[in-house]
Amino acid sequence: KPRLYSGMQPSADSLQIGNYIGALMQWRDLQESYEAFFSVVDLHAMTVAQDPEHLREKTRRTAAQYIAAGIEPSRSTLYVQSHVPAHAELAWILSTITGFGEAGRMTQFKDKSQRYGSEATSVGLFTYPVLMAADILLYQTDIVPVGDDQKQHVELTRDLAERFNSRFGQTFTVPMPVIQQETARIYDLQNPTSKMSKSSESDAGTLWMLDDPAVSAKKVMRAVTDSEGSVRYDREAKPGVSNLLVIYAALTGRQIPAIEDEYAGRGYGDFKKGLAEVVVNEFGPVRQRALELLADPAELDRVLAANAARAESVANRTLDDVYDRVGLLRRS
Ligand code: TYM
């Protein structure tokens, strides 16, 4: 089977539904036909300031949500990045073949560092994409399913793999990004031209996977729309309604025109009520399952440990090869 790799940062207590629609739903489907590795990238989460106890908790919670959303830890390898030391080790090696200017062109770094200011911007944030490249390349990955915000990082990964292979000999599989279509991108409910995000300040605009269903329903009812009053997809003119239509379609597997037809001549109130029901039906059981898993952290930790061992055996094979090729003297 070809290999698949993807991951998420444990940057909040709950994932948001953009992570679910843009990533987890595809992961769940793809794990059937690929040998899949899914990591909770705790080392990446450290690129902004973290409270240690909270980071540990968020890491468990993120893993529990992967499982609750349908990632099967007996079929796919679901593990915590820092449990496999090879990630940090390969990142160092790759950083030595990454250009300073090349890393500086990453738009996510440019955006974030501008937002934080130069004193609050860590070197870790700068080298973040190199660690991401290490994640992917350690597993001889064929495809990387991500949202379009991560595309540039996967392109850098490809460049680094090709560069390493041509300098030191064939070592890495060059991975292909599998980018979700624009329609899989979910926007903030209160500010529907900016992406829904785990690190957003807009709680009212973010649908959290672990929110109480009643809270999610209320957020849907209060979502920003427009004054036209017709349920119609038009991303430019009607970003709020279009975003709600995309969420509706993604969660029900229906086509947008069919949903437009269903709500033709009815107001936004009806449409939002319908969507609130869809959201509650989808996330009620997911939340329930995640909370059950979190009620037994010892069992969850055991599952993560077993999966980390599986990941490590694959990763260490690649790292060994890399150390040999770059000329490091091996301990005998
Ligand atoms: P992260 O944690 O920001 O996001 C996880 C995944 O969710 C997608 N996503 C969205 N999709 C649709 N609508 C949204 N509003 C939305 N918000 C987020 C993201 O595109 C992503 O696919 N750097 C990565 C984590 C990472 C990784 C990797 C990914 C580290 N190493 C190796 C793949 C392979 C990140 O920060 O994702």
TrEMBL record:
Motif extent ('KMSKS' region): 195-199
Binding site for L-tryptophan: 135
InterPro entries (UniProt xref): aa-tRNA-synth_Ic (IPR002305), Rossmann-like_a/b/a_fold (IPR014729), Trp-tRNA-ligase (IPR002306), Trp-tRNA-ligase_bac-type (IPR024109), Trp-tRNA_synthetase (IPR050203)
Keywords for the protein's UniProt record, in alphabetical order: Aminoacyl-tRNA synthetase, ATP-binding, Cytoplasm, Ligase, Nucleotide-binding, Protein biosynthesis
SUPFAM superfamilies: Nucleotidylyl transferase
Source superkingdom: Bacteria
Compartments where located: Cytoplasm
Reaction(s) catalysed (UniProt annotation): tRNA(Trp) + L-tryptophan + ATP = L-tryptophyl-tRNA(Trp) + AMP + diphosphate + H(+)
Positions that bind ATP: 9-11, 18-19, 147-149, 186, 195-199
Record has ATP-binding as a keyword: yes
EC numbers on record: 6.1.1.2
Subunit organization: Homodimer.
Function (record text): Catalyzes the attachment of tryptophan to tRNA(Trp).
Family: Belongs to the class-I aminoacyl-tRNA synthetase family.
Protein name according to UniProt: Tryptophan--tRNA ligase
